[in-house]
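Hypothesis: this fold can be encoded by more than one sequence.
Test: take the structure tokens below, design a sequence, compare later.
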């Protein structure tokens, strides 16, 4: 397959609860391409993961439950336009992994929101919060970027 068939530029309009609209440019990746992210994660490096509920109103509430091997972050209830975030530092062996389970009207899925492979896509080196992993949960899947909309995002997982 050629480059054009492997990657597809999408333009997605995302609502937040405010009247503002954000145009998000996203690059769709096939699910097995997830390991192609560059890995520049260093021990003790700071990361902040943001998860935005960008589902349309009819899907309304999104329940998100996140954990790592050592930390249970509880279940978060997010209405459309809401988000939550958590911070951490990468462990000495660079094996830090956080995963989340998402539940909304008739759908549920679990996947990693941070691991060594995904960490390279979050590189921002913000002096206050470290690197940003920004996840947008939309009707067709889960998009990852390293800044807030209208930054470029990549589709990483389907529902």
């Amino acid at each position: 397959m050629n480059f054009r068939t492997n990657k597809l530029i999408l333009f997605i309009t995302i609502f937040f609860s405010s009247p503002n609209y954000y145009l998000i440019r996203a690059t769709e990746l096939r699910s097995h391409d997830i390991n192609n992210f560059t890995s520049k994660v260093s021990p003790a490096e700071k990361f902040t993961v943001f998860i935005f509920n960008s589902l349309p109103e009819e899907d309304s509430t999104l329940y998100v439950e996140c954990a790592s091997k050592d930390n249970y972050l509880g279940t978060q209830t997010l209405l459309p336009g809401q988000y939550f975030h958590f911070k951490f530092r990468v462990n000495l062996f660079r094996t830090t992994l956080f995963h989340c389970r998402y539940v909304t009207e008739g759908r549920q899925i679990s996947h990693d929101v941070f691991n060594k492979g995904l960490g390279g896509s979050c590189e921002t080196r913000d002096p206050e919060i470290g690197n940003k992993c920004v996840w947008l949960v939309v009707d067709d899947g889960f998009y990852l970027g390293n800044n807030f909309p209208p930054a470029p995002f990549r589709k990483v997982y389907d529902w």
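Confidence is low (pLDDT under 50) at residues 1-38. Residues 3-6 form the longest helix (4 residues).
Hypothesis status: open.
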